[in-house]
Amino acid sequence: MAAGLAKKTFLAPLGKDNPVFAQVLGICSTLAVTNKLENTLVMTLGVMFTTALSSLTVSLLRKWIPSRVRMMIETMVIATYVIIVDIALKAYYPEMWKQLGPYVGLIITNCIVMGRIEAFALQNKPGLSLIDGLASGMGYAYVLLVIAFFRELLGTGTLFGFQVLGSWWTSWAIMIMPPGGFFMLAIFMWVVREAFLKEGSHE
Amino acid sequence: MKTQSFYVRRIHPIVVMAMVTIACILITASLHLYTRERVATNEQFFLNRSILNAAGVVHDGQPTSVAALFAENVEFDSGVYHVKTADGSLRHVIEITGPGLWGPITIMIGFEDDLATISGVSIVSQNETPGLGARIEEPWFTEQFAGKQGPFSMVEEGTSAAPDEFDAITGATRTSESFRNIVNRAVANSDTISRGQ
């Protein structure tokens, strides 16, 4: 595998092909889990784990998967990794598992995971697919962490649960509620597209 | 396009699918069995901790000491947990569920031996908005019921003074109302709790 290709595969999902602000995938969890940084971090680690390893697994199996059942097999592989995350959290980090509730299980339906498998892992070698899956997960992760940073800071005056703004700060309750997620995501996409993706847009 | 044999078209996909399924089930099932005991311990710990909190028993939050305290001081009898406290007085803890804003809220509520004064309140499960309604889990909110007698009315956050008032959570009025209703329902029925032996 050429080093240049690996680097390109790794960098694309972090920048111009970002799953969230360029491809607009995985939006439901972006809105749901980003009101606290701690929840967001654990959730995005789960997504990174799932995208990386399910891309790797499907890529390893790609020569043996009959094309008419490929989606069933992909879903099965993804679900297995998500259940591993769920069980691991339930056993070793139960407080967080209680807080995230159904969202861990919903990683299965995160379009980024399936999207990278269909678009990339089925055609590419395992090593490259692993890089692509991991980078897509990281591209998703940093966007969510930026959104969660602003939502938690403005919404409660805390970061990772620690009070950083003084008592003079009036929390914006709207930032923690679902509409706050829509506002932050829209502002974020607007800023990024306006500032960095201008030459690439041809619509 | 060349025609494929019956096996390739019909049987092969099923065989592959079955093999992948069996492999996935083996992995997840063995992981489940491997962690089953730990998960059960965690759940029991959460339940025991909320019962001790509702009874106002001081503990350090460590699973082993909570389990020891629980085994030593708590007796369960017809729906009521009877908890012996350090000074020898008896407290009675019941579990009660009511509707919250998004889903049911289940709490443990403890009464002193007069069956009117609340010894403590703790959350077993809730599904309220994180950062707003979910703040009912924060200690300042649950602790404010200890030593008071219901039925309660709620006032703005940070202003409760009378012994039958509690601070609502700003930005979570509906959750606070639901919580008041659940606590008041427990208070209204508290005289029917059996004191046990």
Describe what you observe in this structure.
The complex is a heterodimer of chains A (203) and B (197). Chain A has one domain (18-195). Chain A is built from 9 helices and 2 strands. Chain A has helices spanning 3-11, 27-33, 37-61, 70-92, 94-100, 111-121, 126-156, 173-176, 178-195; strands at residues 158-159, 162-163. Chain A has a two-stranded antiparallel ribbon with strand order 1-2. In chain A, helix 3 (37-61) runs parallel beside helix 6, helix 4 packs across helix 5 and helix 6 (111-121) packs antiparallel against helix 7. The two termini of chain A are 34 Å apart. Chain B has one domain. Chain B has a 5-stranded antiparallel β-sheet. Chains A and B meet through helix 4, helix 5 and helix 7 of A and helix 1 of B.
Give a summary of the structure in a few sentences.
Chain A has about 200 residues and is mostly helical. Chain A has 9 helices and 2 strands. The mean pLDDT of chain A is about 85.
What is the domain tally of chain A? 1
Percent of residues in beta strands of chain A: under 5%
Taken together, the total number of domains of chain B comes to: 1
Q: What is the element string of chain A, with H for helices and E for strands?
A: HHHHHHHEEHH
Note poorly predicted spans of chain B.
Answer: none
The average pLDDT value of chain B, as a whole number, equals 86
Spatial strand order of the main sheet of chain B: 1-2-3-4-5
Dominant shape of chain A: globular
Mean pLDDT of chain A: 84
Helix content of chain B: 40-55%
For the sheet with most strands of chain A, the description reads: 2 strands, antiparallel
Largest protein-protein interface = A-B, 33 and 26 residues
**Secondary-structure-derived class of chain B:** alpha+beta
First CA to last CA of chain A: what distance?
34 Å
Strand arrangement in the largest pleated sheet of chain A: 1-2
Quaternary arrangement of the chains shown? heterodimer
Radius of gyration of chain A: 18 Å
| Strand segment count of chain A | 2
Helix segment tally of chain B: 4
- Biggest sheet of chain B, in brief? 5 strands, antiparallel
